[in-house]
């Protein structure tokens, strides 16, 4: 998770296996900009999580906002 005021965040080369959510780049409106999400493997993401979610929910592989490049990822 990268959020609030990030600049130049790089999320690359990760294996996310068995989670409620994968990779999130959020809150662009609070100063976040210039992110890269590349070359990750994301699998076995669950629609249910360990707590009650108060917004979008669970089961998202990659969620990004403006000024983010998403390239070369595998979501199974």
User: What structural category do the secondary elements indicate?
Assistant: mainly beta
Radius of gyration: 12 Å
What fraction of the residues are assigned to beta strands by DSSP?
over 45%
Low-confidence stretches: none
Count the strands? 9
Helix content: under 10%
N-to-C CA distance: 19 Å
How do the strands of the widest beta sheet line up side by side? 1-4-7
Q: Please describe the biggest sheet, giving its number of strands, its sense, and whether it closes into a barrel.
A: 3 strands, parallel
- Outline, from the CA principal axes? flat
**DSSP helix count?**
0
* Arithmetic mean pLDDT: 91
**Total domains:** 1
Order of helices and strands: EEEEEEEEE
């Amino acid at each position: 998770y990268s959020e609030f005021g990030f600049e130049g965040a790089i999320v690359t080369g990760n294996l996310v296996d068995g989670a409620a959510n994968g990779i999130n780049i959020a809150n662009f409106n609070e100063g976040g900009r210039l992110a890269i999400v590349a070359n990750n493997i994301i699998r076995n993401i669950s629609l249910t999580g360990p707590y009650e979610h108060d917004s979008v929910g669970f089961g998202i592989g990659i969620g990004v906002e403006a000024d983010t490049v998403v390239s070369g990822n595998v979501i199974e």
